[in-house]
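Hi support team,

I submitted a single chain yesterday and got back a structure, but I'm not sure I'm reading the token output correctly. Could someone confirm the output below corresponds to the sequence I sent? I've pasted both exactly as they appear in my results page.

Thanks,
R.
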Amino acid sequence: MKKSRDIKKEMSELASQRSSVYGFLARVYSRELNSALLNRIQDPRFMGVLFDLEVQLGDEFFSRPKHELLENLAVEYTRLFLGPGRHISPHESMHHQRNDGDWGKLWGASTVEVKKFIESAGLHYKPEYTGLPDHISVELEFMQVLTKEESRAWNRNDMDRVHYCCQIEKKFMNEHLLKWVHIFCNKVISDAGMSFYREIAAITKNFMELENEELGGCYSKAYEEQLLKARN
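Hi R., thanks for writing in. Yes, this is the structure output for that exact sequence:
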């Protein structure tokens, strides 16, 4: 049977890994790829991780000159997420099919709720941020911050903080991410012309499903550790 400190170490490492995935996805959706991020993705170690996830980026991702690939990816990003014309809005309010009917438009009820949720957790949008509060990159970055804090709390043996982080993560997942990201990702998978954004959307969708399962385990472990703490 594993000791409590071993479980906490594993949970801290897991939360840190989850935070890294959230951070990577948030960056990919926030703006076009630059040379630094492309180099990171094409690094053999990173490609090994993608291979394990059965990600198929296609020959175009490796055979084309880097400057040409970056230009093509920028055009694809703009076409998919920015427009003008028909595009896939990366905002919750456009896809979260609410019972009150207030969805399918920018700055809908979900936008306001996301903004209030994030601010109620003690976080604030950067002054230079001019986008909408419910952009997918913002929601993923919020989860990145939460999981990073969860990892630190496991390391500090601060079970109250761990429990709080798990609660907030699960609540945000259930009330927001799980309500729309799969719809958004399915549209990207269907409409993407380049394999990169199609595969990123597939990773995002699968990661959300795994996170939904993982958060149940996170909450259970935190609760068990709190009980042990109370007994001691």
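A quick pointer for reading it: The CA atoms of residues 35 and 66 lie 8 Å apart. Let us know if anything else looks off.

Best,
Support desk
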